[in-house]
Design brief:
- The protein is α+β, with helices and mostly antiparallel strands and about 325 residues long.
- It is built from seven helices and 16 strands.
- Strands 1-2-12-9-14-6-5-3 form an eight-stranded mixed beta sheet. A four-stranded antiparallel beta sheet has the order 8-13-10-11, with no helix packed on it.
- Helix 2 packs across helix 4.
- The radius of gyration is 19 Å and the shape is globular.
- The termini are far apart.
- It comes from Melia azedarach (Chinaberry tree).
- This is 2-oxoglutarate (2OG) and Fe(II)-dependent oxygenase superfamily protein.
Length: about 325
């Protein structure tokens, strides 16, 4: 506790990956160190303009300020698109408490007659009414397109860090047609009054390969480097203006045979906080299995192969279970 009575926040020391750095070996080494330590790092000089970021945050705030009955008209569907009200998701399966946050899900836009539309996680988005949000669709689609480009760039550095060819993740079965969804999020300090809720987002590991998080300047994200420690030690991740906070998910931990770590994290939100989380996973039928550079006779694969869609479906079903 500081002398003024305010909490002193202990923040994790994270590596910073500069996408404008021409020395890819240096970037790969920094990323590898980060992914073997905390599973979290910053990405800077990513090329997305501050103007676009501010526009997305502005649209987000405008939407969440709508009356609840208006937001519920856009309720999330079975494709995980649309509005996500408080108390819908359970991320912390130790406490089984629901998250006190609200969100809006979007992803790759496919028409209803696209062959992939029938598959989970693909399909048309749910868009707010254009007369109320005339800039929403264009802004969100541009953001999705530009962050996907950044995510692919990070994936190339990951490939180098795992001693793979730089274009390994560009293969069709990996990121040829990725499941790339994002959601805008609002944590309100206490959006709803319920003893069954966690104030923010419960402790969890992300599901896919990568998550790229843009935040406002409000603290709240915490990580636990050793998920098996008793008691768990939590450190804050400091917001860094114009940077993405990037973390690896369970799929990359499986692919790397636990060389890279999918780290437990949570959001403790005692005041209003906005963020945008972009989740990258392989193509629908991509096989999640140990990479050739991450196994040997002495260190065999720790997980059996599994299709991307099967892993995601099981995790989403568990998170959105109804009690």
């Amino acid at each position: 506790m500081a002398a003024d009575g305010k909490e002193t926040k202990v923040s994790a020391a994270l590596n910073c990956i500069d996408l404008s750095n021409p020395d890819t070996k240096q970037s790969a080494a920094l990323l590898k160190e980060a992914c073997m330590d905390s599973g979290f790092f910053y990405v800077i000089n990513h090329g997305i303009s501050e103007e676009l970021m501010e526009e997305v945050f502005g649209q987000s705030k405008k939407f969440f300020e709508l009356p609840m009955d208006e937001k519920m008209k856009l309720l999330r569907n079975e494709k995980h698109r649309g509005y996500h009200p408080p108390l819908l998701e359970i991320l912390d399966h130790e406490t089984n408490k629901r998250d006190d946050k609200e969100a809006y899900f979007m992803g790759v836009e496919l028409s209803e007659d696209d062959p992939d539309e029938e598959r989970p996680f693909y399909g048309p988005n749910i868009w707010p009414p254009a007369d109320v949000f005339p800039e929403w669709k264009e802004t969100m689609q541009r953001y999705h397109r530009e962050v996907l480009h950044v995510a692919r760039s990070v994936a190339r550095i990951i490939a180098l860090a795992l001693d793979l060819s730089v274009d390994f993740f560009d293969q069709p079965e990996m990121l040829g047609k990725p499941i790339a969804n994002f959601r805008i999020l609002r944590y309100g300090g206490q959006i709803c009054d319920s003893s069954e809720a966690i104030l923010g987002a419960g402790a969890h590991c992300d599901f896919g390969i990568l998550t790229l998080l843009a935040t406002d300047e409000t603290w709240g994200l915490q990580i636990c480097k050793d998920k098996d420690a008793k008691p768990q030690v939590w450190e804050y991740v400091q917001p860094l203006k114009r940077a993405f906070i990037v973390n690896i998910g369970d799929m990359l931990e499986r692919l790397s045979n636990c060389v890279f770590r999918s780290t437990l994290h949570r959001v403790v939100a005692d005041q209003e906080r906005y963020s945008i989380a972009f989740f990258l996973s392989p193509s629908h039928d991509g096989i999640i299995e140990c990479l050739p550079t991450c196994k040997s006779e002495e260190n065999p694969a720790k997980f059996p192969p599994i299709k991307c869609r099967e892993l995601l479906c099981s995790r989403f079903t568990k998170s959105f279970q109804q009690n």
